[in-house]
């Protein structure tokens, strides 16, 4: 089908997922520069680790400076700002299911669930997991254009999820227990809806997979291929079974699951 200029919005949404593949290691910022350091949690709260990555803005997904991102549900807030190169570094509690919240003006809040362990997390340059974004600014205008292109209305009382599907290699993703939410994809620059009769299979060239209008709460997503479990990005919250991820859903919020891949 012929797409309007707004189709570039969807193309742009996929570009962040391949940004590290398009940027040579010599061009990537290895450490945050000029960003405001995040305050560490109060003494006695336990070990912390540092997470670093890029803050980018849709639809072109260019690194963006001076954007504040905060640790999920931190009280008092623990926040940091991106530097002149778009890089951000922020302290997170070690060995916990935590996350990052980004809520700039005129943009939908984005939630990035993060599983921390004992080591620092550098999202840029990870082997096998090319998504380097610690946060994505999604302007409200981009959300509206996306809904128009795939033919759905985003319900502000519901939540939304997306992740990179470029490494699924024929695998499928489902919501454990079922859902009435709308599943959509972006393949070769063209958006589409995942049909209920195709078992969740995606066309060749799919780079982005999303679910719209999910009920707030906690859901479990499963990725598999030929009946065998696949992998979620190791920074996502794991489920109780192989191939599953636990996903927090919040009203009016876009949750980023980073990536899923199958052999």
Describe this protein's structure:
The chain is mostly beta strands and 263 residues long. It has two domains: 7-140, Immunoglobulin-like; 149-261, Immunoglobulin-like, CATH 2.60.40. It has two helices and 20 strands. The strands form three sheets. Strands 3, 4, 6, 8, 11, 13, 14, 15, 18 and 20 form a ten-stranded mixed beta sheet that branches. Strands 1, 2, 5, 7, 9 and 10 form a six-stranded mixed beta sheet that branches. Residues 1-44 have low confidence and may be disordered.
Assigned CATH superfamily of the largest domain: Immunoglobulins
Please give the largest β-sheet: 10 strands, mixed
| N-C termini distance | 31 Å
- CATH class value of the largest domain: Mainly Beta
**Low-pLDDT windows of residues:** 1-44
Rg computed from alpha carbons, rounded to a whole number of angstroms: 17 Å
DSSP helical segment count: 2
Query: What is the CATH topology assignment of the largest domain?
Result: Immunoglobulin-like
Write the element-wise H/E pattern from the N-terminal end onward: HEEEEEEEEEEHEEEEEEEEEE
Number of strands: 20
The geometry reads as globular
What is the helical fraction, as a range of percent?
A: under 10%
CATH architecture of the largest domain: Sandwich
Mean pLDDT: 81
Q: Strand fraction band?
A: 35-45%
Give a summary of the structure in a few sentences.
By secondary structure, the protein is mainly beta. The chain is built from two helices and 20 strands.
